[in-house]
Write a structure and sequence with these properties.
It is built from 9 helices and 4 strands. By secondary structure, it is α+β, with helices and mostly antiparallel strands. A hairpin with a 2-residue loop joins strand 3 and strand 4. Helices cover about 60% and strands about 15% of the residues.
Length: about 250
Amino acid sequence: MDILSLSKIDLIKSLHKNNLLKQFIKSDISDKEISNVKLSDSDFKKQKENFFRTYNINNEQDKENFFKKNSITEKQLFQKITAQAQLRTYLIQNFKAKAESRFIDRKLYLDSVIYSLIRVKDPHKANELYMQIYEKESNFVELAHHSEGPEKSTKGLVGPTALNQADPALVEILRSLKPGEVHEPIRVNEWFLIVQLEQYFPAQLDAQIEIKMMMELFDIWLEEKSSKIVKDVVEKINSMNTEVPVS
């Protein structure tokens, strides 16, 4: 394909056919929105300090090493820091007011847990192991070698992990247990699972989580806006009798 010979319409059709049109539009919208942000000296300085702290850049030699390792110039580095600072400022200006509400809606999936797990395929064996733990005749560490899953190598221990990363069948159970409580075996497909909650870490709306919530809101906004633009573009091209294949 000779890209230079493509018309604008052909290019749009090609992007849409290969499921790239929406991503292209998203990137374009995002770049334009963020590049319009007026950055104060203090905003840039704060982002620069955060960046240097993250990459352990403490002096000129560290900076030079970073340039060589990442094959970038000082100008490119400061362009990157500027873009990050603009994004952060944009998020605060446009989505900070909704971040707490988003956090409340998502909190259960942001909480983290450590739990012990044993999985076996024999229901009788599962009940036997459960009763040994429940009656305190033994514990997960001593019985983990019976597990037929990957947790066997960690003596049954799983985590810390975000609650939404746990097995979906265990999420409600883990939320209902108190630390140290063990749940009777449950069946998940061909497995029988025994689970005990070790620790539960409720998510807190700190600065890091707040940025995450604002970024999620920005992504939702981008998805809605880009979807509408794609729909309008496709309809316009189709109205010109230049049909765009539905992807």
